[in-house]
Design goal:
The complex is a heterodimer of chains A (about 600) and B (about 300). With about 600 residues, chain A is an alpha/beta fold. Chain A contains 19 helices and 24 strands. An 8-stranded mixed beta sheet of chain A has the order 6-5-4-1-3-2-14-7, with helices on both faces. In chain A, strand 23, helix 19 and strand 24 form a beta-alpha-beta unit. The longest helix of chain A has 21 residues. The radius of gyration of chain A is 26 Å and the shape is globular. With about 300 residues, chain B is of the alpha/beta class. Chain B has a single domain, classed as 3-Layer(aba) Sandwich (Rossmann fold). Helix content of chain B is about 30%, strand content about 15%. In chain B, helix 6 links the parallel strand 7 and strand 8. In chain B, helix 1 crosses helix 6, helix 3 crosses helix 4 and helix 5 runs antiparallel to helix 8. The longest helix of chain B has 15 residues. Classes of the chains: A alpha/beta (about 600), B alpha/beta (about 300). Chains A and B meet through strand 7, helix 7, strand 8, helix 8 and helix 9 of A and strand 1, strand 2, helix 2, helix 4 and helix 9 of B. Strand 17 of chain A pairs parallel with strand 2 of chain B.
Chain lengths: ~600, ~300
């Protein structure tokens, strides 16, 4: 089993949960440790309850894990909710002036901090947070200079006095822990590696910059807004036009307008905004102007649970816009993949002149992960496909009265000239049109031409299928159980497989990244040897299971589903697999024990 | 609309004609608007390939197909949003947006208001016939109270939008009204709108001879009065424009209501475009910038 250490910091929104979290994250990352952070929070700016889990270790950490080793409750509510979940070996640091501990399991160390004795709480409102960070740091065997360095950066802008005061408070916590608390038996390790700590939203925004995106626009919507924030903050350095638009209908249409002029254009939203964009996707497909649209799923339907995760929009994506049209749909597998997928999907969208849809979710969008800088390639290779632009394309500038924007070809791909190129004037239309762009729908609807144009566009599907690799199985081929997941559940299923293997149940994993094209035949080929198949997904109705069945007629032996707003933890999957292998049920819906 | 455009030599009306002829009903007001737009482009000598005509959906939205310019026939109500993206990606293009009253003031109302406050540099021509034509005659946002249509057979009870007042309130920097029956006057307004730096809004009375039997050529002809004939009218004064915009009845003003040129255009205010149009920028992020993006996360 992986050696990891997880810290849980909880409190009300506005109590400053984020800052201690950031400090620990920075210290871990600078020690060359991997980390994964997940923040369970509510749609409230002040109050409520927030629990940030930071899990760290020397190996890659793909999910929040099953246990908290060190709990730092910043209020009574957090203590009441979470102390009971700590198990032997864990510790809890709390402000003994204001918080009373409940009954803890045996082997759990309670670490009361007499905050008003250690710091001047009239001057420093977040003294309890800083003291706890200092104390915690000592208990995990990290020297004080690491914390001092981060505090100096954190408070630099506020001046030397504030820096000095915070360092002093942190030091008091550090020293108090040395004198009064028992350290964890294994100090946090250290490696020579260095990682970037990033959210999926930052990764997708940076991936867009790497892909050569020049136009990004959005309407704010959780949990996609982080993409807008990164884009806006870095627009000038990266040479990207970033606009906040009146609504998501405006967003998709503005994105298509910019793409039509010849730049790579991208937008991101969540399920509700994506619903508004649906008609625009049909336009992108019909006029064959490529765009990339990201949907960061949150728990629906409707406004749903805005700050909670779900994989509930698969069928919305599959059914978005009316009529048949070619497109690609992909679900990134982890936060690093959020970066890598964007240039890949842009190349496909450009080559096949169709929409590229990214199905992310809150877990990746707002979670944080350590990513090796070598996995953030800013020269990923840009393939604009058959584009005739004013930037010196060979065909540009030649007078070609016979240019046909929608020329019927074997591949279904027609060379795309952008406005401003001499000799290639044409009108694109959302109405069905002929090869030269002239409408066939209003004046004289022509079944032969309609069929030819429909088949031209749909021929691109074969090209897309050939360009996208089929999924592969990881783990032993002849395993007792095959777990099938898609997108963001990759990490937690991987860890569940490791635990199952340790416990004598061999497990393998089939994780789907490309939803369209699905490669159904390749999936059937993989699954035909599986002894027991279970589809794991973060929704109520088994959206992927239904999709797989509709495409391949494949029916798995069982399902593990979760739709309470929280992501899977490894033990949820492990226990469900065991009950299903024992024949107790075919549908497991694990209970989320942490009340957040 | 853009002033920094290339000039073509010796264009004729034939150069402006699209691949097909309009399929509008004989007598439709839109013919006059099409001719005036073509005439304006000829007179301004803007090369065809540097013009993009963008429309939504409706009778008048077939317009781009009748022009020999780059064209986009987009979605109902969305032409302005598409045009904004296109203009921001390549601000060297001259962008004309055409559509009807249902397209612009009904389904596209939100984009209409926001495009004006942004001062996107384009000319927006609404062929306003106060009716939905392509869907065979329903009430539109500019239909007058009492007008009987298929959707309101006992008479419209909803007050119409006043496009001129709305445009003035929303911050349009050029606001005018034309009449399809006044060709020369309309052509002048289109030229002004194209040359104006910023959002130019031109509402054009374009009678629907098939479905609107109230607001006909006969009805408009005695009522329209050119603002240009009023020596005392100053189109630089916003309050005067607002006051004039409220006139409706025996006298209906046409002409330039308002213009100001001291407001930066959207693309002019955007520092990212200091290096030139987005379409000409290098898609690659320079290595030192890429490194800085990663380092701030470490």
């Amino acid at each position: 089993m992986k050696q990891t250490f997880a810290i849980g910091i909880g409190g009300a929104a506005g109590q400053g949960v984020a800052t201690p979290g950031d400090i620990f994250a920075k210290i871990f990352s600078r020690r060359g440790l991997h980390l994964n952070a997940y923040n369970a929070y509510q749609s409230i700016i002040r109050g409520g309850h927030t629990l940030l889990t930071i899990r760290s270790g020397t190996e890659k950490i793909t999910n929040m894990g099953d246990r908290i080793d060190l709990l730092i409750p910043l209020n009574q509510d957090t203590m009441d909710r979470h102390l009971r979940l700590l198990t032997a070996g864990a510790a809890c640091i709390y402000n003994s002036d204001t918080i009373k501990p409940g009954a803890a399991a045996s082997g759990v160390q309670l670490c009361p901090l007499p905050v008003s004795e250690l710091a001047d709480i009239t001057r420093n409102k977040v003294a309890q947070n800083t003291l706890a960070v200092g104390a915690g740091l000592h208990m995990i065997g990290i020297g004080f200079p690491a914390l001092e360095e981060v505090l100096r950066e954190q408070f630099k802008k506020k001046g030397d006095a504030v820096v000095g005061e915070n360092v002093e408070v942190a030091r008091a916590g550090y020293d108090y822990a040395a004198a009064h608390f028992t350290d964890f038996p294994n100090p946090m390790p250290k490696t020579e590696n260095r990682y970037a700590i990033m959210s999926g939203n930052i990764a997708m925004a940076m991936g867009g910059a790497a892909a050569g995106v020049k136009f990004y626009c959005a309407y704010p919507m959780s949990p996609s807004t982080g993409v807008l924030h990164w884009m806006a903050a870095h627009a000038r350095k990266a040479g990207i036009m970033v606009r906040q638009v009146e609504d998501e209908i405006g967003v998709i249409n503005m994105t298509i307008g910019a793409a039509h002029a010849g730049v790579r254009a991208m937008c991101a939203t969540s399920g509700g905004g994506f619903a508004l964009m649906s008609e625009g996707l049909g336009m992108s497909a019909m006029i064959e102007t490529p765009v990339v649209v990201i949907n960061c799923q949150r728990a629906g339907p409707s406004t749903g649970v805005p700050t909670k995760t779900e994989q509930g929009d698969l069928w919305q994506m599959l059914g978005a816009a009316f009529g048949d049209y070619p497109r690609v749909i992909a679900a990134p597998l982890d936060i690093g993949d959020c970066f890598q997928l964007i240039p890949e999907i842009f190349n496909l969208a450009d080559r096949f002149q169709c929409p590229g849809l990214v199905l992310c979710d809150l877990l990746l969008s707002e979670g944080r992960l350590s990513v090796h800088p070598k996995d953030l390639d800013f020269s990923p290779g840009i393939d604009r496909g058959e584009l005739i632009s004013t930037n010196g394309s060979p065909a540009a500038g030649t007078t070609n009265g016979g240019y046909k924007r929608y020329k019927i070809t074997d591949s279904g791909i027609s060379p795309r000239a952008v406005p401003g190129v001499p000799g290639h004037i044409h009108t694109v239309a959302t109405d069905e049109h002929m090869e030269d762009g002239v409408l066939i729908s209003d004046e004289f609807t022509n079944p032969i031409k309609r069929r030819a144009m429909m088949e031209k566009r749909m021929r691109k599907v074969a090209g897309i299928e050939a360009a996208v690799p089929p999924p592969t199985l990881s783990g032993p081929r002849d395993a007792d159980v095959t777990l099938i997941g898609w997108g963001s559940t990759k990490g937690v299923i991987e860890e569940a497989c490791e635990i199952l293997n340790d416990e004598g149940i061999s497990a393998n994993q089939l994780q789907i990244r490309w939803l369209v094209p699905l490669h159904g035949d390749a999936i059937l080929e993989i699954l035909k040897d599986s002894r027991h198949t279970i589809i794991v997904e973060n929704n109520y109705s088994g959206q992927f299971a239904r999709y797989l069945r509709s495409e391949t007629s494949f029916v798995p032996n069982g399902h593990i589903r979760k739709y309470d707003g929280e992501p899977f933890m490894p033990h949820h999957i492990v226990e469900a697999v065991k009950e299903q292998l024992a024949g107790q049920t075919k549908l497991s819906v694990p209970m989320h024990e942490i009340m957040v | 609309m853009a002033t920094s455009v290339q000039r073509a030599s010796q264009l004729t009306m034939a150069d402006m004609k699209g691949k097909v002829d309009p399929d509008w009903c004989p007598g439709c007001g839109d013919f006059g608007v099409l001719a005036a737009v073509q005439k304006a482009l000829v007179e301004l000598s803007i090369p065809n390939h540097n013009v993009v005509t963008i429309s939504g959906i409706g009778c008048s939205s077939n317009f781009p197909g009748y022009m020999n310019t780059y064209g986009m026939h987009t979605l109902h109500g969305r032409a302005l949003a598409v045009a904004t993206g296109l203009k921001l990606a390549n601000h060297e293009l001259t962008v004309l947006v055409t559509g009807g009253d249902g397209d612009g003031f009904g389904i596209g109302g939100n984009h209409f208001v926001h495009s004006m406050r942004r001062n996107v540099d384009l000319l927006y021509i609404v062929m306003d016939n106060q009716i939905y034509g392509l869907t065979t005659g329903q009430t539109s946002p500019t239909s007058r109270v009492g007008m009987k249509t298929k959707s309101m057979p006992f008479g419209n009870i909803e007050a119409p939008i006043n496009p001129i007042s709305l445009a003035l309130a929303a911050g349009a920097t050029y606001v005018a009204r034309g009449y399809s029956g006044e060709q020369k006057h309309l052509t002048e307004l289109i030229k002004q709108g194209i040359e104006h730096p910023g959002f130019s809004f031109l509402d054009v009375f374009s009678p629907c001879v098939t479905y609107n039997h109230d607001n006909t050529y006969q009805w408009f002809r005695p009522r329209v009065k050119k603002l240009e004939d009023d020596a005392g009218y100053d189109a630089a004064v916003w309050t005067a424009a607002m006051e004039k915009s409220l006139l409706w009845g025996d006298e209906i003003p046409i002409g330039k209501f308002f213009e100001r040129t001291d407001v930066p255009t959207l693309h002019g205010a955007e520092p990212v475009l200091n290096e030139g149009p987005l379409v000409h920028l290098d898609p690659n992020v320079p290595p030192h910038v890429a490194r800085s993006f990663i380092e701030e996360l470490m």
